[in-house]
Amino acid sequence: MVVWTTGFRAPDLAREAGLAVGDNGRMLVDATMRSVSHPEVYGIGDAAAARKQDGRELRMGCGPGGLAAACAVRAIGDRLTGRTPRQLRVEGDGHCISLGRKDGLVQYTNSDDSPRGPMITGRLAAMFKEAIVSGAGGFGLRHPTLALVAASRTLA
User: Fold this and answer.
1) Are 119 and 107 in contact (CB under 8 A)?
2) Tens place of pLDDT for every residue, the chain, 156 residues?
């Protein structure tokens, strides 16, 4: 078996813009996804070093990035309306990998990224990933209000 991965790397944009970044180049953000050095700037996704309640950095990936995006959108709206923004709360996550249209794996995880429950593999996992990418993800982009509803479960 051969496993090949190109890895993840944060772009140099945040560092070059003068924002505070960690050793891995990811922008340092608070629990509402706001830059710790420039509070007028928000960072989400793989370029931002969001942290869980236990202080561990969120892993790179679409799942954690989506949670961080929902948190940032909510925080911006809260600040614009004078409310105190809620902080990111991640209680669990999952890994969802497509290996083509007919194979994949889905593994739910605890907040420390340890496996939780059974792993789904094969065609069912590939269909699940496809539903997320083309169905739920696309639907959420077309209807951002639903993302705010979903975000209410990921905010403290």
Assistant:
1) yes
2) 334 444 577 778 889 999 999 998 999 999 999 999 999 999 988 889 999 888 888 888 877 888 888 899 999 999 999 999 999 888 777 888 888 889 999 998 887 778 989 999 999 999 888 887 776 555 555 555 555 555 555 555
**DSSP secondary structure, 95-118, as one string:** EEEE-SSS-EEEEEEETTS-EEEE
Fold classification of 13-151 (topology level): FAD/NAD(P)-binding domain (3.50.50)
Tokens 């902080």 belong to which residue?
Answer: 87
Which residues on adjacent β-strands are paired with residue 115?
109
Residue 106 is inside which H or E element, if any?
A: strand 104-110
- Pairing state of beta strands 27-28 and 48-49? parallel
Q: Report DSSP state, residue 131.
A: I
CA 115, 155, 137: angle at the middle one, nearest 5?
Answer: 70
Pairwise CA distance, residues 137 & 63, whole Å:
11
Ranges of each domain in the chain: 13-151
Q: How far is CA 98 from CA 66, 128, 143, 152, in A?
A: 18, 9, 25, 28
